[in-house]
Amino acid sequence: MFKNPKFVLWVEEYLFYPHTLSHKLLSYALLPISFLYCAITLFKRYRGKKKRLSFGIPIVSVGNLTLGGNGKTPFCITLAQQYDNVAVILRGYGRKSHGMLVVSDRGQMMCDAMASGDEAMLYAKALPEATVIVSEDRVDAIRLAKKKGAKLIFLDDGFSKSHIAKIDILMKPNPEPVNSFCLPSGPYREPRFLYQKADLIITEGVDFFRRVEVVAPTRKMLLVTAISKPSRLDAYLPDNVIGKVAFPDHYMYTEKELETLMYEHQATSILTTQKDAVKMATFDLPLSILKLDIDIFPETLTKINALLAPKR
After folding, report:
1. Are residues 159 and 286 in the same domain?
2. Does the UniProt entry include the keyword Transmembrane helix (predicted)?
């Protein structure tokens, strides 16, 4: 764990907003690997398009070209709430299980957060009428969702799955990264020019906005989180946050380590995100929650419905 989040923040700055000489030297030194990485991803995309599969059901992918932290999951939750007979499919990063797993079936929970991963459990709790499935193989998961009666499928982070016929929505960070290189020289998982392959590009402040409130605040709150780019929470933190602890993305906490952190900081509660909170639900600890709500602009919903109309 990173009790001092300086390393996490250094990596974030290096990838997204390099400003020191060491950042820039490392980025340029790794460019040969980045070029190879880009070549591999473009080849996989080309090969996938040659074998594209259609499933006779509308499929919407909500993803991003950069590493996580753009509000993809809460946006997808809010979007899925607009429709009936929905299934959400995702890989389930950070989970302790393998293979395909039904996390929830129209409100019936089928596993815990350890098995599902944090994002899948957040979907399951936020979408009680939906079916949530985690699987490394999205094709098998889509077929299972159809068998279970889904009429509309959302793929969390499915842009790279070029072998699946779908509507691609890409989230563009606001502000965009200064560094436009692919990994490991920069934050892009696929080349930036692939934005032109999206059916719709959405940006915070243009297509949606977020509202954040602290639920169950206490006098001395310790921020504990395991999300990508934890510094993005700073704008929403109240003045009585007495410390910050950043863990690697999707980290699975133990109750004992959180108890120790509270004792070390003399905190009256743990302040954490909704995504983190699903992994603390069984802990006997005082939790304060950074509750995030997304409001999608009507014009953006109209665009999405126009994309869906020919496929329904």
Report:
1. no
2. yes
Domain shared by 201 and 244, yes or no: no
pLDDT at residue 260, as a whole number:
96
What was the pLDDT predicted at 5?
59
CA–CA separation, 86 and 278 (whole Å): 21
Interatomic CA distance for residues 239 and 226, integer angstroms = 21
The whole-angstrom separation of Cα 261 and Cα 10 is 22
Q: What is the number of structural domains in the chain? A: 2
Tens of pLDDT, residue by residue over 190-242, are 999 999 999 999 999 999 999 999 999 999 999 999 998 888 899 999 999 99
Q: For 12-68, write each residue's pLDDT tens digit.
A: 889 998 989 999 999 999 999 999 999 999 999 999 999 999 999 999 999 999 987
In a domain, 29, yes or no: no
What pLDDT does 103 receive?
Answer: 98
The rounded distance, in Å, linking the Cα atoms of 221 and 268 is 6
CA distance 116 to 93: 8
Contacts of 245 (CB under 8 A, 6+ apart): 1, 2, 3, 5, 222, 223, 224, 225, 261
Q: How far apart are CA 226 and CA 246, in angstroms?
A: 6
> Residue 107 above 60 pLDDT?
yes
Q: Which domain holds residue 132?
A: 34-209+296-311
User: ∠ CA 262-263-267 to the nearest 5 degrees?
Assistant: 45
Annotated binding site: 66-73
3-class DSSP state of 94: coil
- How many residues would you count in the chain? 312
DSSP secondary structure letter of residue 62: E
Sign of CA dihedral 121, 127, 128, 129: negative
Residues placed in the known binding site for ATP: 66-73
SS3 227: coil
